[in-house]
Every structure is written in structure tokens, then in C-alpha cells.
Amino acid sequence: MLQNWNIKAKIYLILALFGLIGTWYFNILAIGQGRDFFADWGSTPAVLSATTDLLVAASAASIFMFYESKRLNIKYGWLFILGSFITAIAFTFPLFLAVRERKIST
């Protein structure tokens, strides 16, 4: 299944998997504890710093994914951006990079 994927693309796929599992593990913990997910984002200066970091990096990644999808003619590239809101940018951005790497190397 992964025979046409080079080592760089496979590393991105592994990172995507860690991003998906890691973020959703903590999301499930928060839901199980009855936490207010969005209210917790602004609870301390450290959390606000991490939130700002994430939002700026996610915005830059989304812009990159949009234009790179167009440039490389990656079908349904917009799904990676939409998927970021549904899953996590820690999952969709490395997944996009894997698909991009595969597209570039073929």
C-alpha cells in the first residue's frame, strides 16, 4: 500500500497519525471530564500563548495548503483545510505534506 511513498512522505504520515491520536486522546479526556473546551483555551497566559501559537501556525499552514494544492493540482486540497477544523491541524498538515511529497516525487 505504501510502496509508492518515499521515506519523507512516510515520516509525514507517521507524524499525521501521532497528531490525530494525540489530539483526540486529549479531546476525549476533556469531554469525559465535562470540560468547556473553548473556555479552557483562555484560562492562563501559558495557554493563551500556546493558543496564539497554534492559531498563527494553523493559519499559515492553511494558506500554504490552499496555494500548494492549486499549484500541484492536488484534487480536493480544500479538504485538508476543512479537516483541520474537524480533526486537528496536527493531523491534516502532515497528511497534506505526505500527499504533496508523493505528488512531487512521481
How do you describe this structure in short?
This protein is mainly α and 106 residues long.
SSE topology:
Blueprint: H1 7-32, H2 37-40, H3 45-72, H4 78-86, H5 89-105
Give short descriptive properties of this protein:
106 residues; mainly alpha; 79% helix; elongated
Explain what the structure shows.
There is one protein chain. By secondary structure, the protein is mainly alpha-helical. The protein has one domain (7-105). Helices cover 79% and strands 0% of the residues. The protein has 5 helices and no strands. The protein has helices spanning 7-32, 37-40, 45-72, 78-86, 89-105. The chain is elongated. 21% of the residues are buried. The model has no long low-confidence stretch (mean pLDDT 91).
Shape: elongated
Q: What is the rounded distance between the termini? A: 15 Å
Number of domains: 1
Low-confidence stretches: none
Output the number of helix runs.
5
Cα-atom radius of gyration = 16 Å
Q: What is the average of the pLDDT values?
A: 91
Largest sheet: none
Q: Total number of β-strand segments?
A: 0
Beta-strand fraction estimate: under 5%
Element-level helix/strand string: HHHHH
Q: Could you say which structural class the secondary elements and strand pairing correspond to?
A: mainly alpha
State the helicity in percent bands.
over 70%
